[in-house]
Prior knowledge:
Oligomer: single chain
Low-confidence stretches: none
Binding site for Zn(2+) 1: 56, 58, 113, 135
CATH topology: Metallo-beta-lactamase, Chain A
Order of helices and strands: EEEHEHHEEEEEEEEHEHHEHHH
Helix content: 25-40%
Number of helices: 9
Strand content: 15-25%
Binding site for Zn(2+) 2: 60-61, 135, 173
CATH architecture: 4-Layer Sandwich
Strand order of the largest sheet: 1-2-3-4-5-6
Distance between the termini: 42 Å
InterPro entries: Clx_II_MBL, Glyoxalase_II_hydrolase, HAGH_C, Hydroxyacylglutathione_Hdrlase, Metallo-B-lactamas, RibonucZ/Hydroxyglut_hydro
Mean pLDDT: 96
Keywords: Hydrolase, Metal-binding, Zinc
Bound molecules: zinc ion
Structural class: alpha/beta
Cofactor: Zn(2+)
CATH superfamily: Ribonuclease Z/Hydroxyacylglutathione hydrolase-like
Amino acid sequence: MYQLIALPSFTDNYIWLLEHTPTATCLVVDPGTAEPVKAWLSQHPKVQLTNILITHHHPDHIGGISELKQLTGAQVYGPSSEKIPARDIALHGGEQLTPLHGLTCQVLAVPGHTLGHIAYLISDGAQAPWLFCGDSLFSGGCGRLFEGTPEQMHHSLTQLSALPDNTLVCCAHEYTASNLRFAAAVEPDNPALAQRIVEVQRLRAANLPTLPSTIALERATNPFLRSDSAQIRKKIDEWQASKNQPKSSNHNAFALLRQWKNEF
Ligand SMILES: [Zn+2]
Protein backbone atom coordinates (compact mmCIF):
# COMPACT_ATOMS: atom_id res chain seq x y z
CA MET A 1 0.00 0.00 0.00
CA TYR A 2 2.93 2.29 0.71
CA GLN A 3 5.84 2.54 -1.63
CA LEU A 4 9.22 4.02 -0.77
CA ILE A 5 11.26 5.57 -3.56
CA ALA A 6 14.78 7.00 -3.40
CA LEU A 7 15.20 9.92 -5.79
CA PRO A 8 18.91 10.57 -6.34
CA SER A 9 19.89 14.24 -6.32
CA PHE A 10 23.14 16.23 -6.50
CA THR A 11 26.12 13.86 -6.34
CA ASP A 12 25.20 11.61 -3.43
CA ASN A 13 21.92 12.80 -1.85
CA TYR A 14 18.64 10.93 -1.78
CA ILE A 15 15.27 12.64 -1.61
CA TRP A 16 12.94 10.03 -0.11
CA LEU A 17 9.41 9.80 -1.46
CA LEU A 18 6.73 7.76 0.29
CA GLU A 19 3.59 7.10 -1.70
CA HIS A 20 0.23 5.84 -0.48
CA THR A 21 -1.00 4.10 -3.62
CA PRO A 22 -4.77 3.81 -2.87
CA THR A 23 -5.21 7.55 -2.23
CA ALA A 24 -2.57 8.62 -4.78
CA THR A 25 -0.85 10.90 -2.29
CA CYS A 26 2.82 11.16 -1.37
CA LEU A 27 5.27 12.90 0.89
CA VAL A 28 8.90 13.80 0.29
CA VAL A 29 11.75 14.25 2.74
CA ASP A 30 14.48 16.89 2.37
CA PRO A 31 14.05 18.03 -1.24
CA GLY A 32 17.37 19.82 -1.70
CA THR A 33 16.29 20.51 -5.26
CA ALA A 34 12.82 20.37 -6.82
CA GLU A 35 13.83 18.75 -10.13
CA PRO A 36 13.84 15.01 -9.25
CA VAL A 37 10.51 15.38 -7.41
CA LYS A 38 8.95 17.31 -10.30
CA ALA A 39 10.19 14.68 -12.74
CA TRP A 40 8.66 11.88 -10.64
CA LEU A 41 5.37 13.76 -10.25
CA SER A 42 5.14 14.36 -14.00
CA GLN A 43 5.60 10.60 -14.55
CA HIS A 44 2.83 9.96 -11.99
CA PRO A 45 0.33 12.72 -12.85
CA LYS A 46 -2.44 11.29 -10.63
CA VAL A 47 -0.31 11.40 -7.48
CA GLN A 48 -0.51 14.50 -5.31
CA LEU A 49 2.37 15.71 -3.16
CA THR A 50 0.74 16.59 0.16
CA ASN A 51 3.60 16.81 2.68
CA ILE A 52 7.21 17.96 2.70
CA LEU A 53 9.22 16.85 5.74
CA ILE A 54 12.49 18.60 6.55
CA THR A 55 15.14 17.30 8.96
CA HIS A 56 17.50 20.30 9.13
CA HIS A 57 18.40 23.59 7.48
CA HIS A 58 21.35 22.73 5.20
CA PRO A 59 20.91 23.88 1.58
CA ASP A 60 21.07 20.35 0.11
CA HIS A 61 17.97 19.52 2.17
CA ILE A 62 15.84 22.64 1.70
CA GLY A 63 16.69 24.06 -1.74
CA GLY A 64 13.60 22.66 -3.48
CA ILE A 65 10.96 23.45 -0.85
CA SER A 66 9.66 26.79 -2.12
CA GLU A 67 9.21 25.62 -5.69
CA LEU A 68 7.46 22.40 -4.66
CA LYS A 69 5.25 24.25 -2.21
CA GLN A 70 4.23 26.73 -4.90
CA LEU A 71 3.58 23.95 -7.39
CA THR A 72 1.59 21.60 -5.14
CA GLY A 73 0.49 23.49 -2.02
CA ALA A 74 2.01 20.72 0.14
CA GLN A 75 2.32 21.31 3.89
CA VAL A 76 5.90 21.92 4.99
CA TYR A 77 7.14 20.52 8.31
CA GLY A 78 10.51 21.42 9.77
CA PRO A 79 12.54 22.09 12.90
CA SER A 80 11.30 25.10 14.88
CA SER A 81 14.74 26.48 15.77
CA GLU A 82 16.12 26.50 12.20
CA LYS A 83 15.43 28.70 9.20
CA ILE A 84 13.24 26.61 6.87
CA PRO A 85 11.64 28.31 3.85
CA ALA A 86 7.82 28.13 3.55
CA ARG A 87 7.53 26.13 6.76
CA ASP A 88 3.88 25.63 7.88
CA ILE A 89 4.41 23.43 10.94
CA ALA A 90 7.33 24.05 13.31
CA LEU A 91 8.53 20.99 15.24
CA HIS A 92 10.98 20.50 18.07
CA GLY A 93 10.66 16.75 18.72
CA GLY A 94 8.10 14.78 20.72
CA GLU A 95 5.18 15.57 18.38
CA GLN A 96 2.91 12.98 16.78
CA LEU A 97 1.79 13.68 13.21
CA THR A 98 -0.45 11.95 10.69
CA PRO A 99 1.30 12.81 7.43
CA LEU A 100 -0.44 10.50 4.93
CA HIS A 101 -3.56 8.36 5.09
CA GLY A 102 -3.15 5.65 7.76
CA LEU A 103 0.33 6.67 8.88
CA THR A 104 1.54 7.82 12.25
CA CYS A 105 4.71 9.85 12.55
CA GLN A 106 6.77 10.41 15.65
CA VAL A 107 9.10 13.42 15.60
CA LEU A 108 12.44 12.84 17.33
CA ALA A 109 14.92 15.53 18.37
CA VAL A 110 18.37 14.36 17.22
CA PRO A 111 20.76 17.31 17.66
CA GLY A 112 24.45 17.04 16.82
CA HIS A 113 24.92 17.63 13.08
CA THR A 114 22.82 20.77 13.57
CA LEU A 115 21.24 21.94 16.82
CA GLY A 116 17.62 21.74 15.64
CA HIS A 117 17.97 18.48 13.66
CA ILE A 118 14.87 16.26 13.85
CA ALA A 119 14.05 12.79 12.53
CA TYR A 120 10.69 11.31 11.48
CA LEU A 121 9.72 7.79 12.49
CA ILE A 122 6.80 6.81 10.31
CA SER A 123 4.70 3.67 10.66
CA ASP A 124 1.56 2.19 9.13
CA GLY A 125 1.34 -0.33 11.98
CA ALA A 126 1.93 -3.24 9.60
CA GLN A 127 5.12 -2.86 7.55
CA ALA A 128 8.54 -2.14 9.06
CA PRO A 129 8.70 1.51 10.21
CA TRP A 130 10.62 4.07 8.17
CA LEU A 131 13.12 6.35 9.88
CA PHE A 132 13.94 9.52 7.94
CA CYS A 133 16.98 10.75 9.78
CA GLY A 134 18.68 13.24 7.41
CA ASP A 135 22.33 13.70 8.36
CA SER A 136 22.20 12.35 11.94
CA LEU A 137 22.58 8.57 11.62
CA PHE A 138 24.16 7.46 8.36
CA SER A 139 24.47 3.96 7.04
CA GLY A 140 27.77 2.87 8.62
CA GLY A 141 28.48 6.31 10.07
CA CYS A 142 27.04 9.59 11.36
CA GLY A 143 26.92 13.23 10.36
CA ARG A 144 29.68 15.69 11.14
CA LEU A 145 29.26 17.82 14.23
CA PHE A 146 28.77 21.24 12.62
CA GLU A 147 26.76 22.72 15.50
CA GLY A 148 26.34 20.23 18.34
CA THR A 149 28.67 18.49 20.77
CA PRO A 150 29.80 14.84 20.67
CA GLU A 151 27.66 14.25 23.77
CA GLN A 152 24.55 15.54 21.98
CA MET A 153 25.20 13.38 18.92
CA HIS A 154 25.97 10.33 21.04
CA HIS A 155 22.70 10.81 22.90
CA SER A 156 20.78 11.24 19.62
CA LEU A 157 22.29 8.09 18.10
CA THR A 158 21.67 6.09 21.28
CA GLN A 159 18.02 7.03 20.97
CA LEU A 160 17.89 5.87 17.33
CA SER A 161 19.82 2.70 18.14
CA ALA A 162 17.01 1.70 20.55
CA LEU A 163 14.37 1.65 17.77
CA PRO A 164 12.99 -1.74 16.63
CA ASP A 165 15.44 -3.99 14.72
CA ASN A 166 13.48 -3.86 11.47
CA THR A 167 13.26 -0.03 11.33
CA LEU A 168 14.32 1.06 7.85
CA VAL A 169 17.04 3.68 8.05
CA CYS A 170 16.44 6.22 5.29
CA CYS A 171 19.31 8.68 5.65
CA ALA A 172 20.01 11.43 3.16
CA HIS A 173 23.35 10.45 1.60
CA GLU A 174 24.95 7.52 -0.20
CA TYR A 175 28.02 7.43 2.04
CA THR A 176 27.90 3.74 2.99
CA ALA A 177 30.99 2.51 1.11
CA SER A 178 33.31 5.20 2.47
CA ASN A 179 31.81 4.91 5.96
CA LEU A 180 32.46 1.17 5.95
CA ARG A 181 36.11 1.73 4.98
CA PHE A 182 36.49 3.63 8.23
CA ALA A 183 34.44 1.03 10.14
CA ALA A 184 36.79 -1.72 8.92
CA ALA A 185 39.81 0.22 10.19
CA VAL A 186 38.15 0.67 13.56
CA GLU A 187 36.76 -2.85 14.00
CA PRO A 188 38.63 -5.21 11.63
CA ASP A 189 37.46 -8.42 13.33
CA ASN A 190 33.71 -7.76 13.11
CA PRO A 191 32.29 -10.57 10.89
CA ALA A 192 28.94 -8.78 10.31
CA LEU A 193 30.90 -5.79 9.03
CA ALA A 194 33.02 -7.91 6.67
CA GLN A 195 29.85 -9.44 5.25
CA ARG A 196 28.24 -6.04 4.82
CA ILE A 197 31.24 -4.63 2.97
CA VAL A 198 30.92 -7.42 0.37
CA GLU A 199 27.20 -6.71 -0.02
CA VAL A 200 27.72 -2.95 -0.36
CA GLN A 201 30.43 -3.48 -3.00
CA ARG A 202 27.99 -5.67 -4.95
CA LEU A 203 25.25 -3.01 -4.79
CA ARG A 204 27.53 -0.14 -5.77
CA ALA A 205 29.03 -2.12 -8.65
CA ALA A 206 25.46 -2.52 -9.94
CA ASN A 207 24.85 1.21 -9.36
CA LEU A 208 22.12 0.43 -6.79
CA PRO A 209 21.45 2.33 -3.54
CA THR A 210 22.81 0.76 -0.35
CA LEU A 211 19.78 2.21 1.46
CA PRO A 212 17.58 1.83 3.33
CA SER A 213 19.62 0.09 5.98
CA THR A 214 18.05 -1.30 9.15
CA ILE A 215 18.61 -0.47 12.80
CA ALA A 216 19.69 -4.08 13.44
CA LEU A 217 22.34 -3.83 10.71
CA GLU A 218 23.54 -0.47 12.00
CA ARG A 219 23.77 -1.79 15.54
CA ALA A 220 25.89 -4.69 14.25
CA THR A 221 28.22 -2.72 11.95
CA ASN A 222 28.15 1.06 12.55
CA PRO A 223 31.09 2.04 14.79
CA PHE A 224 29.22 5.13 16.03
CA LEU A 225 26.60 2.85 17.61
CA ARG A 226 29.34 0.58 18.94
CA SER A 227 31.80 2.87 20.74
CA ASP A 228 31.46 0.59 23.79
CA SER A 229 32.98 -2.35 21.88
CA ALA A 230 36.26 -3.57 23.39
CA GLN A 231 37.95 -3.77 19.99
CA ILE A 232 36.91 -0.24 19.07
CA ARG A 233 38.23 1.04 22.42
CA LYS A 234 41.54 -0.70 21.77
CA LYS A 235 41.80 0.73 18.25
CA ILE A 236 41.04 4.23 19.58
CA ASP A 237 43.88 3.79 22.10
CA GLU A 238 46.23 2.73 19.28
CA TRP A 239 45.18 5.70 17.14
CA GLN A 240 45.75 8.06 20.06
CA ALA A 241 49.14 6.50 20.79
CA SER A 242 50.10 7.02 17.14
CA LYS A 243 49.34 10.72 17.60
CA ASN A 244 51.04 10.87 21.01
CA GLN A 245 47.77 11.76 22.70
CA PRO A 246 47.00 10.55 26.24
CA LYS A 247 44.79 7.44 26.52
CA SER A 248 41.01 7.93 26.37
CA SER A 249 38.62 7.51 29.25
CA ASN A 250 35.35 5.62 28.62
CA HIS A 251 33.52 8.90 28.59
CA ASN A 252 34.96 10.32 25.40
CA ALA A 253 35.29 7.24 23.14
CA PHE A 254 32.49 8.54 20.89
CA ALA A 255 34.10 11.98 20.57
CA LEU A 256 37.46 10.42 19.70
CA LEU A 257 35.86 8.17 17.12
CA ARG A 258 34.25 11.19 15.45
CA GLN A 259 37.58 13.03 15.50
CA TRP A 260 39.38 10.02 14.01
CA LYS A 261 36.77 9.79 11.23
CA ASN A 262 37.25 13.50 10.43
CA GLU A 263 40.95 12.86 9.94
CA PHE A 264 40.58 9.49 8.21
ZN1 LIG B 1 23.47 18.48 6.73
